[in-house]
Amino acid sequence: MSFVPETLILLLCSLVVFQASADISLNNYGDSAYPNRCVLDIGSSVVLLKMGQAFRLKSLPCTTIFCTGDGYGMLFTCDKKAPPDDCRYTEYLNWDDDYPNCCERKVECN
């Protein structure tokens, strides 16, 4: 994987913006049939992302893939922090909102 300066800048900016509320992983979404693209097979279709583009997976709660280039992308999901003592998380409050606002969940306490 070779990063160009623009890719590194996008990667660093994304980490700064999302790190407070996200679990982040770097994954290979490459496919030799589509060089320099992130290729997402979402079952009913294939999504092709160029470097700097993002795609929200509607089937998973608040999950976004940000293409960093050369087939690699960062997968952003909500931070898996524990609820306050004697409380539990229930439904997502803003399921259709943009990331990271979609991470907000209702808290029910005893």
Secondary-structure blueprint of this entry?
Blueprint: H1 5-18, E1 22-28, E2 38-41, E3 46-49, E4 54-57, E5 63-69, E6 72-78, E7 87-92, E8 105-109
Antiparallel strand pairs: 1-6, 2-3, 4-5, 5-6, 7-8
Give a description of the structure.
This protein has 110 residues and is mainly beta. It has a domain at 5-80. The protein is 13% helix and 40% strand. It is built from one helix and eight strands. The protein has a four-stranded antiparallel beta sheet with strand order 1-6-5-4, with helices on one face. A two-stranded antiparallel ribbon has the order 2-3. A hairpin with a 2-residue loop joins strand 5 (63-69) and strand 6. It is elongated and about 55 Å long. The chain starts with a helix and ends with a strand.
